[in-house]
Write a structure and sequence with these properties.
With 129 residues, the protein is mainly alpha-helical. The chain has a domain of 90 residues. It is 72% helix and 0% strand. Helix 3 runs antiparallel to helix 4. It is elongated.
């Protein structure tokens, strides 16, 4: 009878080790997030991304592209408006996500220089999160 507690402890230890070993080898490899685009690449990226989109989406993307080219801080607001559309493809969403860091930085730079429109765009962006 003295072996019974030892056998139970050994069984529990063995099952625990097997459980841990089975969980460690099954993790899926996560894809790396795409790198953000440089500011000078954003406008052309938007044009390429929405070239085959429907007319309404192309018009909205063209307005965003113009705002980006004019360094208008409201480009950030325009980008967020397009991201809310349910008819975007996964690729379009990913491309917009790559544009976001550059637009945020541009708006921050403009706000630091005293541009009230940039301050308002940043405030609206942060309130939407």
């Amino acid at each position: 009878m003295t072996n019974k507690p030892f056998q139970i402890a050994f069984s529990v230890l063995l099952v625990s080790l097997l459980g841990i070993a089975s969980m460690t080898g099954c993790k899926k490899q996560e894809a790396a997030a795409p790198a953000p685009l440089a500011a000078e690449q954003v406008a052309s990226n938007i044009q390429q991304t929405f070239a085959g989109a429907n007319a309404d989406l192309q018009a909205q993307a063209a307005a965003l592209q113009t705002a980006v080219q004019q360094k208008d801080p409201n480009a950030l607001t325009a980008l967020e408006a397009i991201k809310q559309r349910p008819d975007l493809t996964g690729e379009q969403r990913m491309q917009l996500g790559q544009c976001l860091p550059s637009l945020l930085q541009s708006a921050r730079d403009a706000a630091s220089a005293g541009d009230p429109r940039a301050e308002q765009a940043l405030k609206a962006y942060h309130l939407s999160k």
